Amino acid sequence: MATPASLALEGKDPRVHEEEVQPYHADKVPFEAFLHFAALQRQKEDHGFESQGSSFMSRLFKKTGAVPAIVDVNVDEKVSPRRSPSIAVSDEERIQANRALRTATWISFVSGVLLFFFLGLAAFYTGMQLWYMYLNLDSDEYPVHNYSDLTERIYGRFARHCINVLQTIQLLFNVAVCFSVLAVIWTVIGMTVGQIRSLQNYGNLAHFAIWLNLLVIFITMGAVAHSPPNFQAAMQENNVSMGTGQVITSATINLPFTAQIVGVMQMVYSYGGAMLFIELMAEMKRPFDFWKGMVCAQLLIVTVYLLFGVYVYAFQGQYTINPANQGISGFGLQTATNILSLVSAIIAAGLYGNIGLKVIYVNIVQDIFKGPPLISRGGRFIWVGLVLAYWALAFVIASAVPQFSNISGLVAALCILQFTYTFPPILFVGFIMQRDAIQGQPEYTPGIEVSQIRPDTWYNFSRWWRGFKNLWWLNTFNFLIFLAALATAGLGAFSSIEGIIAGFKVAGSATSFGCQAPV
């Protein structure tokens, strides 16, 4: 992994060599070229590694032939210049921002445990798909820097723009997930720190935020085990009256369908790192090893979040709320966890805001409107205006909907679920069909006209059918997963919106642009 560094915003990115990789449009490059150069790239990275993993590599790419039997190449031990994206968004910044804001609490038990586990398995499966496609499409000649690059290779430039829009929306909403009473202060802080275009010093803060989150978890677990639930908060957020005050737990819980779906979206939120997988691999010297880190990360998420959710529910039962530390009845401990959470959230919001602004600037100001570079004088003025507009919009969202579970569920449904569960299967279908459609045609070599080796054009139905039928069962399976994830996203968005409407009707609930806290 490359060392976190400044992004050539206040100066040149030390990770980028003098030679720059020339930009290109993926829809103007034949698919065969991506496969050809990716095969050579993997051979470079795997050179001298036969004793540890060549047999697995050979089996993995046996179908595609992506690892040539003998390729005489010189191994360059330095990280290629293309490993550092030319866009002004650091991969390390995105990674740390994602980690800093992760939360997961839910109120079911057996069904919740099983669903959380199976969602983890599904996230692992789709993550492996992203890994496989990256290995087959990335090369020094045609580098894959991020999720939108991968999408463009398979479905064209329009699909790339759609990915960038969704990514921007997700980052904006992540910034806006805060309480209305804090929104004014939050906006002023955001507009101030947002003027800092380099996040070189944010790396250590992001690591610090992760430990703060763990500390909040530990304090919450200790507090709920030795104090009664926060009955007032349970009534205000979930409309659960105190009653006898007796905590009731159950293996199965009867909740309205929309409430169950919102709970599922909270689980989806936990597996929201897929948007960053491509960025992670782009920074690795040997991207093949990415699967090892992904397995460890998924196991950590399942273990920590699962134990935390079950533990809190076991002590608070029907009074469990989200975020869980708000269920602490003791004023002192609740205040302490609130302070820790706010500090962590400020760090995360600063990271997300800065990254979101860079995505907007690069993909809209520079790419679409051909604006000046961010390091130029004109870029500085445009950046100031974008910062003010971005955080003002975040303020409107945060103040308009002061409901943590419902707004985070909406973010999960509209964006996070797509990057983790919806897009990878349909991208994989497109990749497999294009790959298998070229089987049997003469081997591609650089400089050759594609029309000389292709028996038909890409828009010919027979070509697509030839690509689909070879692994029809796998393509059908992935297409069904895509449809299921898309339907779940629709249900999640609908349920979250219904939850927002219902939340405003509860007596004593926080109002839009008000000062009363939701819990």
TrEMBL record:
Subcellular location: Membrane
Signal peptide (residue range): none
Ranges that cross the membrane: 104-125, 171-193, 205-225, 257-278, 290-314, 339-361, 381-401, 407-432, 471-494
Cross-referenced Pfam families: Aa_trans (PF01490)
InterPro entries documented for this protein: AA_transpt_TM
CC per GO annotation: membrane
UniProt entry keywords in alphabetical sequence: Membrane, Transmembrane, Transmembrane helix
GO MF: L-amino acid transmembrane transporter activity
Similarity field: Belongs to the amino acid/polyamine transporter 2 family.
Protein name per the record: Amino acid transporter transmembrane domain-containing protein
Source organism of this protein record: Clathrus columnatus
